[in-house]
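Progress against Task 2.4 (sequence-to-structure conversion) is shown through the following example record, which the project officer requested during the mid-term review.
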Amino acid sequence: MLYEAVRLALQAILRNMFRSFLTVLGIVIGVAAVIAMVTVGQGSTDQVEADVSTLGTNLLMIRPGQPSQGPGSGVGGTAASLTLKDVEAIEEQIGSVMVATPSNSRAMTVIFGNVNSSTTVTGTDTRFLTARDWPLSIGRAFYESEQRTGSAACILGSTVRQKLFGNSDPLGASIRLKQISCRVIGVLEAKGASSFGTDQDDIVLMPIRAFQRRIAGNQDVSMIYASIRTGVSTDKAKADIERLMRERRRIGAFEEDDFNVFDMKQISSMLTGITSVLTGLLSAVAAVSLLVGGIGIMNIMLVSVTERTREIGIRLAVGATEGQVLLQFLVESIVLSLIGGLIGIVLGLGLGLLGSRLLSIPFSPNPSLVLAAFVFSALVGIVFGFFPARRAARMDPIEALRHQ
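Structure tokens generated for the chain above:
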């Protein structure tokens, strides 16, 4: 009986092909929009997590000063800078810290021959490569003697290497930073753009002591990166570092911190949370099309019942039960919805793939969402097709046969 109901439903749909297409258009648009939005949103979330992970795993960043309030604010205040002794204290006294490394940065122009480029010069040490999980593609890290004496040795980011040297080997070449001649000893592996849109590879590393003496002109450390051991809670490590820094900076029990410890996992959670909320809002708006599509199906099914009144009367007169008539029209409504759902799923995945390519983010379809969209399409057909089907099943055969 079900097979026969499906066959009759398909015949009725094919008999009015264009009208059937317009009927399911709302379902198609709703399903496609929801799948496309969620797919792109999931891809954006995956991209944010990947971008944050390129900054280093289990990474904490310590900066002087209190964070200013308000959007777009950085670290404010006139607190004392960090020092190299703070770096050593964190690494030696906090057992959960694998490595701690200093960082001082300044925007500068780097010159090689007749080529120059604006970049970021960062003073640090070899532990920076471990903390940031940033291996070298060629060359070597700083020697201990170079770090201790502040030799002018440089490690280039891949963007700087490409701008200054193209595809030629830069090892052993001397570049200029203002009046400083710096020998290239290595090149970092490419990391690409961060989730904040900055090019991480547009960087030059040099020993922190050389940076302090020859560029900054002071002994300050603007940031400390602390890489936490695998399996250790970053929350516990953060609390331990805060307690140590309060002791070292002689902050009283009732005084506020004059430094900040940032957890990269918290930044990642914040960014992915924003992405998820936006995706949810857009998907909710798109889901309204499903409601509109369901109303369209109900409307057309009511029209179909009216057009086929005599056919219904004949079926009832020759012995068809109310249940069989109700099943026939209900199946027709469900088939319409499922056709719309299938077209919407294919279209939504196609739009999601296109959006992922245009935005350069991973294509991350959700199989559970696809299944849910298919099931929801069937539910729309049942809910919005039941009233027209019941109306057809409750017709009086005699009155139906009199209908012209």
